[in-house]
Amino acid sequence: MEGSRGSVVAMLALLTHLFLSAVSARAATMDSPLCRAARYRAVAGHLQEYVRCRIEEPDDVQNCLNEGLAELADILAAFDARRGCTLAADHLETSSQVYATVNVQFPYLLGFPTAGSRCVIERWSAAEKYGRLVLRAEARNARSPNAAVLRRRMAGLATRLSIGLFRAESEGDCVGGSGADVPSITGEIARLVEGVDPICGNDRRGPGEECDGNDAHDCPGLCQPACVCGPPVCGDGQVTGDEDCDGAVDDVCPGLCEPGCRCPEDFCGNDITEAGEECDGTDFWACASPFAYPQCGAPGEADACECSSILVQPDACDGASSVSCPVGQSCVTLGLFLPLPTLLHACVPPDPPTCSGADQCTHAGSVCDDGSCCGTIGTVCRGDETCCADDGLICGSSHGGIGACCRYSLMPCLRNEDCCNGTCMPNVGGFACAFF
Q1: pLDDT tens for residues 383-401?
Q2: DSSP letter (8 states) at residue 434
Q3: Rg (Cα) of the chain, in Å, rounded?
Q4: How crowded is residue 148: how many other Cβ atoms within 10 Å of its Cβ?
């Protein structure tokens, strides 16, 4: 009897151990405090390594970054083995968050560390140290949550960041950077933290979340408690979910929104060239010409879904004078890839000082924006003021040339010709003109 009782007790103990082990293993995966803390610590080291690559190995930065990626995968795999986490499977997504910070946002905010400026190097060092310590503070908070303590730590780190940036400015050779300040850097690190470990309910949408409270760009006012978009409501004046339009919000098909919040199957603005159209949005290849910048009229404009182009007149002037241009027109030099870089010239008519419609803008490629004519992408230009500033355009070199309206680094783009440096690359949330 005693032996049977002992066997039962032993069996119960074994089953209890197995059950608790299973519960423990499940709790240690994904969102467990230990795994979240491990992810934060790994990303802190990854951020430090990526910044080191940019500063210390500028001539071999890609190989250095690749080695850092492999190291991150190994570190996360080791955590998985020790803690029963499942972190290594997401190492590419985790690394992409750090990559966006180091290779896109930091150069934009702080300037390029390869510029030879001691000030810029100090900025990068201060920002990296702040980010690394914030991630470590988040790791400690993941294991032992205490909002008050975390706030104090963040405030102290922000003060140290401010001191570091002040010391950087004292170097006196600061060049570049549009946001080397505490709010910009703390905001970017907050985005990185959210990307690494999105938390539903903090009003900041992260990976895997369709929305988060008021951060609901894709479904304004429809974000559910689980950070997913609720079903769209046709007629509420907001384009959400799979709606093409909603009442007067009909940018996709101006004046053509149907009662079911759908655009007609065939319309100008759907990026598909259909009967009666010469082009449509990004489907503008029929407009191409070896001696012109192709343009496709936007929906709602007088030339909607019609081709236009900036014709270049190679013999209009000799580049040094404008004696061959008609009275009132100026001569500009324009460069194109034909496929070889070729300098050409064009006579540009003036635009009126004010306008109320695109048909009043005589300069080919110009549109009427806020009462004055300005150039769209590819339009021959004579200065930044002749390009549409609200569209983020400047007068620069579009795809290898000079004298054409184009977008600068980090601005959204659809094709290479949109960018002053000629390279439209995938970026967080879409495509953007690359840094060069």
Answers
A1: 777 788 767 788 875 443 4
A2: P
A3: 28
A4: 7
